[in-house]
Amino acid sequence: MRTNSTAWLFLTPAAALLVVIGFAPLMTMVNYSVQDSFAGDRFFWVGSEWYEEAFRSPAFWGALGRTVLFAIISLSIQFGLGIYIARKLFHVQKHGAAFLGILALPLLTPWIVVGFVWRHAMDAEAGILGALGSVVAIVPDLNSVTWVWATIIIMDVWHWTSFTVILCYAGYVSIPGPFFQAAQIDGASTWAVFRFIELPKLKRVLTVALLLRIADSLMINTEPQMISRGGPHVSSTFFSQELIKTAMQEFNLGEAGALSVIYLLLVVPISWGLYRLMRGSNGV
Length: 284
Prior knowledge:
This protein is mostly helical. The protein has 13 helices and 2 strands. It has one domain: MetI-like fold (Orthogonal Bundle).
């Protein structure tokens, strides 16, 4: 079967530009990861020393583990809520567009503002959530590991659930009406309709949403930095924060380069796997 590859002619300039733009930072990162620097302008070859040190470091494994745990918890809640809300909006179909507009407002909020707002909202004396909590004897304490994690997860769910809702709603709108009519005639249950009609049709948009949200969750930095500065101790220090601290505060470019390469090797296989899943769901 012959395929029309004309589209590649239009994509080639953009793809070439992206390769050129991405090549220099990538090679700089790899170059730093195998060298040690002195005074910022003198470099010495150290080979795999920075990688070995990273894998031996409890700080590295702790930050990576916290990042993965955060992504699993946060994305599980976001996708569950996102699918549920999108399904309700689609089947009710009353002012759905207006609700989507309201739900999209958190997406327009800058990350640093999100962290700032939630930190002050949880303040026991001046914050609205803190004040409401004190009424029922539940006083938020951002010096507590439990409260810090709860705040970061709730904040991330508030910030990004609407992203999943919008994509899922678009997926619902694309499902042909006869599918639902046939299910109704056959007497299919609500669960059967969701399991065998809606979920398979949402597979592609959910894969795209999961790909984007995984990449973003593994890079979370600004919001927890504003809320807890990585504390108490290092309980909310995530991988990206460890990387930024190594590069910008300790100015250890070699170790930071190695951490960046490790992060890249973590994200690329996940992205490729989800991309193949998305392609497979389209029969390609």
